Amino acid sequence: MYRLILTRRLHTTNAVKVTQKVKLFDQLPGEGGKVKKGLEELLGPLRAANFQNPNPLKTVGYDHFDVAIVGGGIVGLATAREILKRYPDIKLTVLEKESDVAGQQTGHNSGVIHAGLYYEPGSEMAHTCVRGADLMYEYCEKNDLPVERCGKLVVACNKKEHEQVEKLYRQGTANGVKGLEIINSDKVTELEPNVKAYSALYSPNTGIVNYWLVSQCIADELRKSGRADIKTSFEAKKFEKTYDGQVRILGGEKIMDGPTLSVTAKHVITCAGLYSDRLATLTGGNGRKHKIVSFRGTYYQLKPEYRTLVKRNIYPVPSGGGIPVGVHFTPTVDVRRGHQTIVGPGACITFSREGYRFFDIKIKDVWDNVMNGAFWSFAIKNFTLSLGEVYRDLNKNAFLKSGQKYVPALTGDMVEPSFAGVMAQVFEKGGVAAGDFIVERNVMDGLILNVRNAPSPACTASFAIGEMITNCAEKDFNWKQQ
Ligand SMILES: Cc1cc2nc3c(=O)[nH]c(=O)nc-3n(C[C@H](O)[C@H](O)[C@H](O)COP(=O)(O)OP(=O)(O)OC[C@H]3O[C@@H](n4cnc5c(N)ncnc54)[C@H](O)[C@@H]3O)c2cc1C
């Protein structure tokens, strides 16, 4: 049998008393059997490291482009790829303020390929998530990148939560998610012996991937095309219209007062994640609308000996509020996480847009939140939830308690600190988290398009978002395919 059964003694944490037989799978999906497909498995971390830009200073040697994309996260990169695919004559540049691509949200997340359960049927999110997931599996398989269709359980702990499971089932089915099944507690135990559930939604098409590596692979593909230049350490700081109707972007190294660099492009697309509102203001867009609020998600990870405590993604039912709150268990194929199973994240308000630690503070960022009425409406409506998230960010036992609700065997000595990610979220008037991707069009007399809101599942959906943005660009910039 696949399972090894260990008996653990009574263990007490501050949060709960746990008496539990811990059952560990002796392998995760994709392990054992025939050699696992995947870059890291084939050639090891060294091969993966080759995807890093070998020389960030090496550029194509010119500064005039048809298109400039600001932001080298997965959304910007996937958009660049789609444009090159459709238009063989276009030359483009991706401008990224960090010294490498995918250094912000794209490189610090759960790595889940979402199947498309959570999104309003008919929304762009629903459509791009379902299509994007298929494209993501296809891309990873074609490029030998590690990816696993390990599945997911959304766990209901009681009858009330079961109603949410039913709602997700209906929503997912309407969105075209295949293979969804509501299962009872016995079936849950059969699939995941350490999970305690009233019932669960089983989604076999949910998977795991390493989005940082996917981004490196796309960047590599762009460079190899000979038609794209990735300029790292280029923070776009000013946008101006030239006398001949193009856009000049002035920028330079982040924080530094070094030389001003300049790039000119016929059209510009900004995909700036945590700074999308600030970039919009710089381009002449409506910076007062769609203000970004940033939340830090902190993760723990199961120590190597416990990494197979669960075999699939194990999620709670969504707790409301619209932001992805809820500690979940996710096996990883990420060499930077030691291939461990991660547990997290929370969603704690940050005092800095790139606040990876609690005490990272930037006055400008705090002030932006203070002046954001929509955020205040959210915080007041979800006061207990918001405060609970701050407490959980600082208190390991509170964090563990969230996981123990449905994996009671989890104890403090099973986990070690892992990493944190910071997510960008827009709130609509009235304090509701924006439920769809937002694109601001026809900025600077129709020369610029700004991606204003691309929260989860933007990694899953990235290739489909690339298609969606290219469709918008085609119309706004009057591009004609040959
Ligand atoms: C904790 C966490 C867990 C998540 N889990 C998942 C998941 O499991 N599955 C999923 O699909 N999604 C997940 N997401 C969401 C996903 O990571 C993001 O939606 C996605 O990465 C957004 O991509 P992006 O390219 O828009 O943003 P980013 O990756 O943030 O990229 C934006 C880039 O723009 C650059 N930039 C900003 N300003 C400038 C400037 N002035 N000049 C030049 N460059 C600039 C930044 O440096 C950055 O590299 C998660 C997010 C977080 C934080």
Automatic annotation (TrEMBL):
Keyword Lyase belongs to the record: no
UniProt similarity note: Belongs to the L2HGDH family.
Full protein name: L-2-hydroxyglutarate dehydrogenase, mitochondrial
Origin: domain of life: Eukaryota
PANTHER family for this protein: FAD DEPENDENT OXIDOREDUCTASE DOMAIN-CONTAINING PROTEIN (PTHR43104:SF3), L-2-HYDROXYGLUTARATE DEHYDROGENASE, MITOCHONDRIAL (PTHR43104)
One Pfam family hit: DAO
UniProt entry keywords in alphabetical sequence: FAD, Flavoprotein, Oxidoreductase
Lineage, uppermost ranks: Eukaryota, Fungi, Fungi incertae sedis, Mucoromycota, Mucoromycotina
Domain FAD dependent oxidoreductase span(s) in chain numbering: 66-470
Cofactor: FAD
Recorded catalytic activity of this chain's protein: (S)-2-hydroxyglutarate + A = 2-oxoglutarate + AH2
Keyword Flavoprotein on entry: yes
Top enzyme category: oxidoreductase
InterPro entries: FAD-dep_OxRdtase, FAD/NAD-bd_sf
EC number: 1.1.99.2
